[in-house]
Each structure stands twice: as structure tokens, then as C-alpha cells.
Write a structure and sequence with these properties.
Layout lengths: L38 H7 L2 E2 L6 H10 L4 E4 L5 H8 L7 H10 L4 E7 L6 H12 L5 E8 L15 H11 L5 E3 L1 H7 L21 H10 L6 E12 L4 H11 L3 E9 L17 H8 L6 E5 L16 H8 L3 E4 L6 H7 L1
Parallel strand pairs: 1-2, 2-3, 3-4, 4-5, 6-7, 6-8, 8-9
Helix pairs in contact: 5-6, 6-7, 10-11
């Protein structure tokens, strides 16, 4: 089907101070400017909702069909602060709505976009205490850092090393709460073991992605030798660079194979954006055009699902033309199995 729902998607009515959609320039894929806040998509596809547009009719349907789990962007349970952060007078009812979830045994996963000076520190403690008080219907809570591009016009602060360390310490008090990988990268701490992430229920939000990839790699049987000499480059994000370096170190033990790691600097969004899903064609081209390799490895998260289109509207054929390189797209971004099979 063209869409997961057959009528109009329920739009987002918020104007969040940290909204990534609002800080995008013009000229990207049209779908990137759509802001949905639809409980049906949250149930069907795992998208995050704020509950600010949830009607009594919606609640009646959720209760009747006993839908769930949902993925809820909580951010804070302080009513006044949530109104301020979401810029929506309806936003203050978050805890009330989540209490309704509890009363009707509707499970949910929570997300907190951490904005230093707003919902960190004492406010984060309050939010986590409130969420924990809801008991078993809270399946997990993920804390992710606010993403700030060079197109922002306000003075929202980035998460720095100090805030990251404090956040990790606070989160450690609550067994269902995990910090995304960026917090550990900022502090220089080792990525936690798999036990920290439970069942990796918020993997697509960058919570445990590096640990999952590294642990999966340990289970793969590497060939001792490949038939013909081959040289490849990982075009990776700066966030994943250290993990890919560890993997490349092991791959380089394969006779006749050499792996390079080439992190892509985000000139388009600004240097503070370090994730693979936001890499654009021109930044990728600048990174790989002058390296001498047989092929370049990229993760599928750089591309629109079921296509070869990048965020900026250009596609992989354009990158091939500009670089003269062959590309190997890893579809499962949490495993190197496809690459190992390709080398064999």
C-alpha cells in the first residue's frame, strides 16, 4: 500500500523548540517536511507521538482495540515546561494521558530529547521518576541529545561532555532507561554491554546501535582469504567511526582484503550533525572521490527506504557519476553479514 493509513495522516500541532523538521532548508525530499503525530502510525510503524492531538474518540478506539505499544515523545512530565518546549497549550496533559494508558493497560515506550538548560538535570530526574511510577506499562525510556543544525536561528544548546556524563549518571538509577550512543561517545566512555539495552526496543533511535553492530560482528565467521586482491572504503558517520574502525581492523586480517574507514564530515548540516542518516550526496562525494578503492560501503540508512535517493533529492547514480566509484549498500545497518557474504 502507498500509505499505512487510508485517510489523512493526523498532523503534528506542536511547534517544538527542538523540531528537526523546522530547521531543514528548502530543496530536500518533500516527505521530509511532513510532520505527523498519528497514534496509528506509532502503533503500526513505531513513529513517535506527543499525544497532544489525542481525542476522546481516539482514546475510545485505542481502549476498544487494546492497541499498543506506542512510542511517545515525552521530553518532560512538568506540565508548564512541556507547554514551553512543545509550544502547545495542550502539551501539559502528558502525564494525564499516560495515566490513562496505565488505567487501560496500554504499554508504551518513552523518548526524551534532552535539551540542556531545559529538561536535563533536576527536570530529567522528575520526568524519570514520574515515568517509573507508571509501572509495567512503561516498557522502556530512551534519552537522545537534541540535534542542532547550522540552519537554526535560536540559541538552543548542544549536549556537551559534562551534560552527557550527568545524564548517563541519572539514567543509571532507572532500570528501564537508556541513553543513546551519542552520550557515551561524548564522554569517551565505552559503549555499555548488551544487558544495558534490554531487548534493544529503541534501536532505530540510536539507542544501542553500536553495541548491537559490534556484538553481531563477533558472531560472524570471517574468511581467511579472498580470491582476488580487493580494497574497500567504509563511508561512515563520525558517530559510528570508532565502531567501524574496530570492525575494519578485523577485516584487514583477511588475506587479499584491505578496508579503509572514511568518516563523512557534514558540511551541509554543520559539524554537530554526525549521524549516517543525514549524510547528503555532496558531502559523500567530497569524502570518497579521491580515494583509490574497488568499492565504497555505505549503510542503507543514508537512502530513502526502497530507493537510492538521498535526503537532498539526488540519488546514488549521481554519486556514482561524480565519483566514478562502485558502491555496496548494506541493507541491514546492524550487521556486516551482507558484506562478509559478498567478499566470500
Amino acid at each position: 500500500f502507498e500509505s499505512a493509513v487510508f485517510d489523512r495522516v493526523k498532523p503534528c500541532l506542536n511547534h517544538c523548540i527542538f523540531c528537526f523538521v523546522d530547521q531543514q532548508p528548502k530543496g530536500l525530499r518533500e516527505t521530509l517536511y511532513i510532520k505527523d503525530d498519528d497514534y496509528r502510525l506509532s502503533y503500526l510503524q513505531g513513529t513517535y507521538i506527543t499525544l497532544t492531538n489525542l481525542t476522546e474518540k481516539d482514546k475510545e478506539r485505542i481502549a476498544r482495540m487494546h492497541l499498543g505499544p506506542f512510542y511517545v515523545s515525552v521530553h518532560t512530565t512538568n506540565p508548564d515546561l512541556r507547554v514551553k518546549m512543545l509550544r502547545n497549550p495542550n502539551a501539559g496533559k502528558a502525564l494525564e494521558n499516560l495515566q490513562w494508558f496505565k488505567n487501560h493497560e496500554i504499554p508504551f515506550h518513552a523518548q526524551i530529547v534532552l535539551c540542556p538548560g531545559l529538561n536535563d538535570g533536576v527536570e530529567l530526574e522528575r520526568t524519570l521518576q514520574d515515568l517509573t511510577s507508571l509501572g509495567d506499562i512503561l516498557l522502556s525510556a530512551a534519552i537522545v541529545p537534541v540535534g542542532i543544525t547550522q540552519f537554526r536561528e535560536d540559541e538552543l544548546k548542544q549536549v556537551d561532555k559534562k551534560v552527557a556524563a550527568e545524564t548517563i549518571q541519572i539514567a543509571a538509577k532507572y532500570p528501564k532507561v537508556c541513553c543513546s550512543d551519542e552520550f557515551f561517545l561524548l564522554t569517551g566512555e565505552e559503549i555499555p554491554p548488551c544487558e544495558y539495552y534490554g531487548n534493544f526496543s529503541q534501536l532505530d533511535d540510536g539507542v544501542g546501535a553500536i553495541r548491537y553492530l559490534l556484538d553481531d560482528f563477533k558472531t560472524l565467521e570471517l574468511p581467511k582469504k579472498i580470491k582476488a586482491p580487493c580494497k574497500a572504503a567504509f563511508a561512515t558517520s563520525y558517530a559510528a567511526k570508532d565502531a567501524i574502525l574496530k570492525i575494519a581492523e578485523q577485516l584487514n586480517k583477511i588475506e587479499n582484503f584491505e578496508a579503509l574507514v572514511c568518516p563523512v564530515k557534514s558540511d551541509y548540516w554543520g559539524e554537530d550533525i554526525t549521524v549516517a542518516g543525514l549524510i547528503t550526496t555532496d558531502d559523500l562525494i567530497k569524502t570518497v572521490k579521491d580515494i583509490d578503492v574497488d568499492f565504497v560501503i555505505i549503510p542503507s540508512v543514508m537512502l530513502k527506504p526502497y530507493s537510492e535517493d538521498f535526503l537532498d533529492g539526488k540519488n546514488l547514480d549521481y554519486v556514482r557519476e561524480q565519483t566514478g566509484k562502485k558502491f555496496f549498500v548494506i541493507q541491514n545497518i546492524y550487521s556486516m553479514k551482507e558484506l562478509i557474504e559478498y567478499l566470500k
